[in-house]
Amino acid sequence: MRPDLATPLARAERLFAELADLSADAPGVTRASFGPVEDAAHAMITREAVALGLDTRTDAVGNLYVTLTGQDRDAPVLMTGSHLDSVPHGGNFDGAAGVIGGLVLLEHLLDGPQPPCDVTLMAIRAEEMIWFPEHYLGSRAAFGVLPADAPDRLRRSDTGRTLADHMTEARRDPQAIRDSRAQLDPNRIGAFVEMHIEQGPVLIEAGCPVGIVTAIRGNIRHRFCRIEGETTHAGGVPRQSRRDAVLAGVELAHAMETYWVEAEAKGEDMVLTLGEFTTDARLHGITKVPGLLSFTLDVRSQDDTVLALFEHWLQKQARDIAERRDVRIDLGPYTQAAAAPMDARLRRGLVAAAHACGIDSFELPSGGGHDCATFAGQGVPSAMVFIRNENGSHNPAEAMDLADFGQACAVLCAWAGAYLKL
């Protein structure tokens, strides 16, 4: 039977509208990590939680926890949540759907018997890597596993100022990260379930409102790749004498796509993206052979072995092309996030909850990274519910239908009732 969520969903609709208004930044919304608009979003959730009579606290690094207290405060807690920051000029639902959906769950549970354990919504800071080049910043900081030098090493993409500066400005404590001070104990968490919009077209194309995630793809990201050749005259230098950075990059890109096609043919899970591929317009032009190319590379898979083998191949391929074309290829440093399989028992429970509610669902991998991966990496049983969402994410055209959001909330609430044995 589907739970009655009319009142919580009315609150959710109002909060989505308020969130869009407070973070409007045409043509979309912007909630920068450790910025005043992200602060305002956290304050909005805190206000609503207090109005509902729920407990709230904010940890040293700025993560917000909203708790419905259980009968046994020492029992492992059931957690849900997501992030409230956004990419620049992004959509209103990425991350926020999981936070507001968590509030729907808590408001729903308020109408029933007291749960046997605490149920906590976590509004997580700084998930969007576009602001600070470190994946899952807020959730990793909560577990005390962010590199100790992060506050002083990481600089925000728009301001150039350090994470420490922005945290201090937001009245948070960067020293907690420097000291690896954990704000969460994984042994105290019974399960974590994150609700999130799907960031691809799979649910839309299948005509299905809800997806249950099998795994979150791990990734290897090279943000600062450079190919250095020689800038020369476009008409005066023959092909064999050129050290063309762009053609070297094109050869490497073609080799990577060929590798990708072959990996798919072998049944391997892999996606690969050259997110930037550019020369410097101040140095190059139509009459010049380009001597410098910059690019970024993002490769993802549910299988960490696939990522490791690709990285080994990539380094060798870059060396071979550099030698053959007499250029220098520097792939630069890279970040790596491990793949995160979702807990099989929780997945089965979510599938059963969708079936009990009469809601169509199926299982699929998550191509995007999510804070849920941090919880899974800490040994916490973890799962994700995807919501059908048109036009992808990280863009102002995100179009999650509130009816689909309501169906995903129904699945989450039905599953939580079974998990808590209410």
Automatic annotation (TrEMBL):
Alphabetized InterPro entries for the sequence: Amidase_Cbmase, Bact_exopeptidase_dim_dom, Peptidase_M20
Keyword terms: Hydrolase
Gene Ontology molecular function: any one: hydrolase activity
PANTHER family to which the protein is assigned, alphabetical: ALLANTOATE AMIDOHYDROLASE (PTHR32494:SF5), ALLANTOATE DEIMINASE-RELATED (PTHR32494)
Family, per entry: Belongs to the peptidase M20 family.
NCBIfam families noted in UniProt: hydantase
UniProt name for this protein: Zn-dependent hydrolase
Native organism: Marivita lacus
